[in-house]
Amino acid sequence: AELLDGMEAADLAVLQALAMLHGEGLVVPVDVDAPPASEPLLTAAEAHAVRARAQRGRSSSRGQVVKVLVGARDGSAAREALAGLPLLAPEGALVEALGTVAELEVAEGLLLHFCVVPPGELGRPLWRPFSSDAAGLVLTEASAALLAQARFVAEEQRTALAVLGPSCPEELARRGAAAHPGAREAVRAVLLSFAGLSA
Questions:
Q1: How far is CA 179 from CA 18, 22, 79, 115, in A?
Q2: Which of 30, 128, 153, 181 is least surrounded by Cβ atoms within 10 Å, i.e. has the fewest?
Q3: pLDDT range class, residue 27, cuts 50, 70, 90
């Protein structure tokens, strides 16, 4: 169909040429299954619920940005943990230990910003301002510094937690966190909790 659309010659002439080339063995039809389309991160109704929750108390706008914190030692580790998602590079220079490290368009008018904040004691003063408007936190590893950051987000900010990996530390499980095998599942769990929907 693409060949017929792209040629100026009559369709019959194109098909006759293909039949001749096939008869000579110069072209061979290949049965290639197209890879399945990736399932969207959120359904349309879920994306609407996330957008509505993010707009509470704010002026309505066509585009909505939702911030998701990534508990990682730096931006490179965060991007590596999120590699299974169709990420976009953020505008401007990438900051390795602070700020937006990746973006993801979930639906028309709904954009996720994945942000990292330094997990150690030097980064502690930044935890409150960076987590105050976040939808939640996806923890990529269970180091002592990242666990302290996750506890702060859960207790002080009442923000959803998801753990990326095979198991969830008991102290985070008591705070409503669960383990997820991949980035897609972890981010989805955070967004659904943010919107008040069950995962």
A1: 54, 54, 19, 20
A2: 30
A3: confident
Question: What is the three-class DSSP state of 9?
Answer: coil
163-194 burial, b at 16+ Cβ within 10 Å, e below that, comes to bbbeebbeebeebebbbbeebbbbbbbbbbbb
The token duo for 36 is 């399945």
Q: What is the pLDDT of residue 91?
A: 52
Q: Where are the beta strands (DSSP E) in 72-109?
A: 99-107
Pairing of strands 110-116, 179-180: unpaired
119 neighbors 145 (Cβ within 8 angstroms): yes
- Max CA separation in the chain (angstroms): 73
CB count in 10 Å sphere of residue 81: 22
pTM of whole model > 0.90? no
